[in-house]
What we know:
5 strands; alpha/beta; three-stranded parallel sheet; two-stranded antiparallel ribbon; globular
Amino acid sequence: MIADCLDENSAKPKSQTYSAEKFMILPTGTSRTLAPGIPNMGVTLFAGDPGAGKTTLAYDLAGSVINGEEFLGEVPSRTGPVLFVNCDEPHIFGQEKIINRGIPGNFTVLMDWDVSQWIDLETLVEDMRPALIVVDSFNAIHLDPSFDENSAIASQTIKKLERLSAKYCA
């Protein structure tokens, strides 16, 4: 019974320990990843120092989703259109990345978006139904120049993006 697995003070499951053998025989389901380490739906943040390759990695993933080609050695579990939400770069940088990654089409670019324009993003996602949404960058979508990615506001934004992802299967 599920109630037996729950902590008495919350709806959170009790912790459980498994040996390697027992862990590997737990029931498996269908792949819940879009690509290696990237959930099929939901929010994944790429974090790192400036110039570390976060945007390049995201555009490589986008190209794989559009073209149905390998990403990190695996073909994405889903293909389709991609929405690029470019928040803080001139359009020529986005064009260059798209050309360099060999992305032929099947994408839309939303330029200069921030969280104050949420309805614009949701309307576009509802109309487009993208397989993947790339937001670059998380800090840039917030209007506060002293934005802290560890703040409650950041958490609220992640939750809103999670709900958007779940609602439109992106």
